């Protein structure tokens, strides 16, 4: 009996079919891996934004006073780089699309207030401001701080981060029904701290909007929070948030016109 072997043509055809199958499998695998990676990157941004959004909403809801749009406020400490406006290069801020400032009531209205003494701040009014900072400046100035530093990211050198500026305000400086407590001059404040709230805030975005609900006195204002995060990875841009998303909401501070200093 004659046994017929595999011809060269048959072998080549088999190899072509095998190659096509391998190419299809590889393409499917790469596509699945990319889809998974894209989902993870967007999800990371979304989680970052959700944490920041929850913090902002909870803080703003407590506000006793919301600074009006157009109010100028100087943030002069603790370090110049921590309060430098990425669009103007100045530490003079104007309440509006990228800056919101509020005063919260004391934690204990009956307690003493001495902003310079830890443990004696329970009776102090609390000042909070939220604003963007250039990510590159943040990275450059926190490189030696293992608790605050962020990894360098050349692809996102123009990105922003969202910052929180907080301090204690002496009760004597707060005037009931005033158009702006301390009129933006924050020299009567103590215990200033600056902290990172969110990474990869979209540059040029407008995270805040302040609107008048009632002229007063006291004036009643709402704050619109509209966070949008953006990050470039391997030449591709990933975003999360924006108008109509879970990172967008209107906050009505509940203590306006209720508590008196």
Q: Your description of this structure?
A:
It is a single chain. The chain is α+β, with helices and mostly antiparallel strands and 261 residues long. The protein has one domain. Helices cover 23% and strands 29% of the residues. The chain has 2 helices and 12 strands. The strands form 4 sheets. The protein has a 5-stranded antiparallel beta sheet. Strands 8-9-12 form a 3-stranded antiparallel beta sheet, with helices on one face. A hairpin with a 2-residue loop joins strand 10 (228-233) and strand 11 (236-241). The model has no long low-confidence stretch (mean pLDDT 84).
Label the overall shape. Answer: elongated
Helix content: 10-25%
User: Biggest β-sheet, characterized?
Assistant: 5 strands, antiparallel
Given as residue ranges, the uncertain stretches (5+ residues, pLDDT < 50) are none
Mean pLDDT: 84
How many alpha or pi helices?
2
User: Which structural class do you get from the secondary structure elements?
Assistant: alpha+beta
Order of strands across the widest beta sheet? 1-4-5-6-7
Care to give the gist of this entry?
With 261 residues, the chain is α+β, with helices and mostly antiparallel strands.
Give a quick set of tags describing it.
261 residues, alpha+beta, five-stranded antiparallel β-sheet, three-stranded antiparallel β-sheet, 2 helices, 12 strands, elongated
List strands and helices in order, with pairings.
Blueprint: H1 8-61, E1 65-66, E2 72-74, E3 92-94, E4 100-104, E5 125-134, H2 135-141, E6 160-169, E7 189-201, E8 208-214, E9 220-226, E10 228-233, E11 236-241, E12 248-251
Antiparallel strand pairs: 1-4, 2-3, 4-5, 5-6, 6-7, 8-9, 9-12, 10-11
């Amino acid at each position: 009996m004659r046994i017929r072997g595999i011809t060269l043509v048959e072998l080549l055809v088999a190899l072509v079919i095998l190659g096509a199958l391998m190419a299809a499998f590889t393409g499917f695998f790469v596509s699945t891996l990319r889809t998974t990676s894209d989902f993870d990157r967007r999800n990371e941004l979304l989680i970052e934004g959700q944490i920041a959004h929850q913090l902002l909403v909870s803080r703003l809801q407590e506000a006793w006073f919301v600074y009006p749009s157009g109010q100028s406020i100087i943030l002069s400490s603790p370090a110049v780089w921590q309060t430098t406006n990425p669009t103007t290069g100045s530490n003079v801020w104007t309440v509006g699309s990228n800056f919101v400032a509020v005063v919260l009531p004391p934690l204990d209205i009956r307690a003493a207030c001495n902003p310079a003494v830890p443990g004696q701040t329970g009776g102090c009014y609390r000042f909070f401001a939220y604003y963007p900072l250039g990510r590159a400046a943040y990275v450059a100035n926190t490189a030696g701080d293992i608790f605050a530093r962020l990894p360098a990211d050349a692809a996102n050198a123009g990105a922003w981060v969202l910052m929180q500026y907080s301090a204690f305000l002496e009760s004597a400086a707060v005037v009931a029904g005033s158009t702006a407590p301390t009129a933006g001059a924050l020299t009567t404040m103590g215990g200033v701290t600056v902290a990172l709230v969110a990474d990869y805030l979209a540059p040029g975005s407008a995270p805040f909007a302040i609107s008048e609900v009632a002229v007063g006195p006291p004036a009643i204002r709402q704050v619109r929070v509209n966070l949008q995060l953006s990050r470039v990875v391997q030449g591709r841009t990933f975003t999360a948030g924006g108008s109509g998303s879970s990172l967008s909401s209107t906050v009505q501070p509940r203590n306006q016109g209720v508590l008196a200093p």
